[in-house]
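HUMAN: Ready with one sample?

ASSISTANT:
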Amino acid sequence: MDSDSDFYGATPPTTKPSSPQPTNTIPGDEETITALQRRVSSFDPLAWWARNGHLTPSQSTPTKPSPSSQPSQPSSSLHNPYAGLPNAWQLHEPISDFLSRLPPSTTDWRPGLEWIFVANPHTASRYHAPGALQLFRRGGQERLKLFEKFQDMAIKALQQDDSSLSSSGRGKPPDLTVVQREVEREKKETVQDLTELAVECGILAGKWMLFPEENDVDEVWRKVVQATVAGELGIAAKVETKIDKGKPRLICIYTKDFRDKEDVARVLEGLRGLGLVKSGKQIYYKSEAWTELNIYSGNTWGIQASLYSSGQILSYLRAKRPRKP
């Protein structure tokens, strides 16, 4: 649903990577699945971090300013983690000048100008250690590869069973319902492991995503920038620059911690108050950890790309409100 992020200092590709289509059914048999479960069950994200999560001094010093996903306390002074970046709002800069300098509708994409940024100056951001991000990517990719092998070996097991049953004309076909249930359970464990690893590595940011049309992007971005600078939305926001004429633009509005459902809901309410979430239309919230692992819609693992929909968060808010007597 969205392009690769450089929120943590990564460089986004020139085009969004294509994702393989998910497999509709994962065949195999119960005995094979049991053996595969033993193979992947040894992955412990906390133990993996304990073995690999020791940053060297060079890793612990950030090389590029980027807002941290770690919670931070508001400060009386103003802050800007994007200070000095030409494609970002600066503390001394009037908002009107910033919007005139970098209008997203006409600012062409080029290397180094893939995004236009604005930070909430009322929240002090800590710098994120790039070493932790590299470790998260490595550990996350290892875990995804284990699940991918689980899927592949199950497919091969069924293919062999189908071949032997066809040649012999006898035997009991594999129970696909059992297999699919076990693979689904393994997928849930994969998601849990990746989430725990993201927490251990401090990859906590998440984002609401808007996709305004090119004719509307300047006005939508203006509202997001003004509310972000006023401290009324999240910790930062960014908008895509122009690549293809007429293409909808992605705007990301960041929160500091995807686990903080109250803050995620607060930012959604802020977007609704600005008229940026139309009634009856869903928008989606995605953790930055998933973006760093290239988990997009239609991914080969069948993992849901978004963490929340606006409908889910609004239902959460309604459930919290006291019922009228």
Observations:
- The longest strand covers residues 115-119.
- The chain is about 40% helix and 10% strand.
